[in-house]
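The freezer alarm interrupted the setup, so I double-checked each line after restarting. Inputs confirmed:
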Amino acid sequence: MERAACIRAAAVVAALTSTCAFAQGFTRPDQGKLTATGGVTQIEGAGGGGLTPWALITGYGSRDSYGGNAHSTFVDLSDYSLGTYGVAAGFHDRFEVSFSTWRFKGTDGALDGVKIEQDVVGLKLRVAGDAVYGQDSWLPQVALGAQFKRNKGITGLEGLGVSKPTDLGAKDNNGTDYYVAATKVFLDQSLLANVTARFTKANQFGLLGFGGDLQDKYKLRFEGSIAYLVTRKLAVGAEYRAKPHNLGVDDEGSAKDVFIAWFPTKNFSVTAAYVDLGTIVNPFVPGKQRGAYLSGQIGF
Amino acid sequence: MNFRNFIASLAVLGSLAAPAFADDELYTKQFGGKPGMAKITHEMMVGVLADPRIKDFFAKTDIERLEFLLAEQFCELVGGPCKYSGRDMKTVHRGEKINTAHFNFLAEHLQVAMENNGVPTWAQNKLIAKLAPMHRDVTEPR
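Predicted 3D structure, all chains:
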């Protein structure tokens, strides 16, 4: 199969990409990208920072190969905890597919013991530029992505007649975010910068469904990341992610973090962060939800 | 976030991250001048020639001359008082069937050599920034 045709097919049918990769006559992943240039795994499972998907394609496969990884992330907030794990693969440094499953729990306050679960399937297609090799150009690497989110229900609030986000005022339990991400590595300054524009209806990343009593329209929200490359195996940075406010029962705001990511080898990375997810179901659970974020990734 | 402001704040951060210096200082202080760069290119090639993934590209190469040319080229790229006297990147690599992975494996040997010779990461990245766009000319066109 010709490469260009392969990429077009990949864009249409995610499941076929692995077939395309193998059909081109290689069986072994090349780990041909430079350390850290696959990024880490963001909260929804895409290659990126911690909160924000980047235009970089996950894994260490070069344009001639493929890469993949598995991750597990734990976030310990003031009144909640969030655990996610999942897998992702990148093909030809062009196309990415990811899966992540979430378990969100109330650990204190009014929602202590309440559990919410969701699954996220992500697709990403790089459409322009090269974040690393385009050092002589202002054009960043640009990718288009989608994250399909399916809420698996709320447990622990049955007494109030709540078992799914729509019971809290959301318009849908499932929904899709669309985004455009632009990422550039400024090697001369040892900096990585990313800006992501997300079209979303999600309430608290989808945990509380999509749309609500206040509004039920796709909103454009901006996200940004900046990282300083301390060494080729260590990066420190900060992120910001704006979110819509659709639900009357939840005074939703923005999320931010400061992070440190360590890449001892191409097969393992660990990211530690301090996150501030803003309030979640304020005023019922008042106060900013802040705490430690720890994520590990193994892959190739 | 306003994109223009974002870029402006990047520039500010960048200037904080990398101290200001005269061009020649990068070459002499961070890369150790002529002896330093000669050592870096030599150690890089020792790594390359021991790497089964890429060593075959250099089977017929005059390694001593290659090290000399690389030191000259890197010196020029970091603003040192040199002028690369070799052929252009496209001509030299034509037909070699070098792919992105090969290009990066060699870059990693350079990074290790710079690390082992005490070149700080911010200075390493200034050289890598100049080498990265050569990917276009060095690798096989697709």
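Quick read of the result. Chain B touches chain A through 33 residues (CB under 8 Å).
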